[in-house]
Write a structure and sequence with these properties.
Arc Repressor Mutant, subunit A; transcription regulation; about 300 residues; D-Maltodextrin-Binding Protein, domain 2; DNA-binding transcription factor activity; alpha/beta; LysR_subst-bd
Length: about 300
């Protein structure tokens, strides 16, 4: 048997609930004659009388009494499913806008964002890379990931992990190094942020380190990495950012020594945003990713 039309069922439910064709017509924004017509068609389709027509009102027949609760439940289920679907569509439009230091973004965070999308499919991520301090009022970012020592005025800054640095070089340079002191004769790649760490690295090897005669000063870590892969010299880089190059043999770590940088990676956001759902969701996921990464062991205490 074919199902009755949804319109006729809605009309029946309204008339049964209100015990009136006139009130049902007002609720459904149709004429009383249209209500009467739809009820008559429904009764003909079902082969039963659903209402007893009295002078000034209608009441459900015995068949109508049995039918009404199930129709009411069905319509409520449809309405609830539609509301949930509509709410879900609205949630899908929600965004998390973030600004992230470039090398950390491309080398560690971005490859992991698919797992966030899988766990939170209703959130869209908008990522911009930047090294500058974020003015959240002007940039409209929800959060930022920054590398530094902090603090950031007016911001909540939670430490994600400490930066650690290892000395790396291309394989042909690696094979020429027999002892630590040999590094003093090699070109060193650096920028202003890591010169102090070079002093600390050599200090762990009980070697005094003066500014090298041959060195290359670069603007950022990406340039240092490119030069290191090209065989220009030896670099100090965080191994979490060059995992692929180490795994593929493009770079080799020189001696099992690392130094802790003075800088950390932080998640930063305005104080008034601490209870914002987007912040709480992303921050929770981010710390879970850090805890699962074996390269982060001992860095996030």
């Amino acid at each position: 048997m074919a199902l009755p039309s949804l319109n006729s069922l809605r009309t029946f439910e309204s008339a049964a609930r209100l015990s009136s064709f006139l009130l049902a017509a007002e609720e459904l924004f149709i004429s009383p004659s249209a209500v009467s017509h739809q009820i008559r068609q429904l009764e003909q389709r079902l082969g039963v009388t659903l209402f007893v027509r009295l002078d000034r009102q209608v009441v459900l027949s015995a068949e109508g009494e049995r039918y009404y609760p199930q129709v009411k439940l069905g319509i409520e289920t449809l309405l609830r499913a539609t509301e949930q679907l509509t709410d879900q569509a609205l949630v899908t439009n929600q965004e998390i806008k973030m600004s992230i230091v470039p090398f950390f973004a491309t080398r560690w965070l971005l490859p992991k964002l698919a797992s966030f999308r899988a766990s939170q499919p209703n959130w869209q991520l908008k990522v911009q890379t930047s090294t500058s301090s974020s003015d959240f009022n002007k940039s409209n970012f929800d959060l930022a990931i920054r590398r530094g020592v902090g603090p950031w005025n007016g911001m909540i800054a939670k430490r994600l992990c400490r930066e650690r640095l290892v000395a790396v070089c291309r394989n042909d340079i690696f094979t020429s190094i027999k002892q630590v002191i040999d590094l003093l004769d090699l070109p060193l790649l650096f920028n202003a942020n890591v010169m102090t760490e070079w002093h600390e690295w050599f200090s762990t090897q009980q070697l005094a380190f003066n500014d090298p005669e041959v060195s290359f000063d670069f603007q950022n870590t990406s340039q240092i990495l490119d030069a290191c892969i090209a065989g220009t010299g030896v670099a100090l880089i965080d191994p979490i950012l060059i995992k692929d190059e180490l795994d593929q043999g493009k770079l080799r770590q020189i001696f099992p020594v690392s130094v802790a940088s003075q800088r950390h990676y932080f998640i930063v956001y305005p104080q008034q945003s601490e209870q914002q759902e987007s912040i709480q969701l992303f921050e929770k996921w981010l710390f879970e990713q850090l805890a699962m990464d074996p390269l982060m062991v001992g860095r996030c205490d």
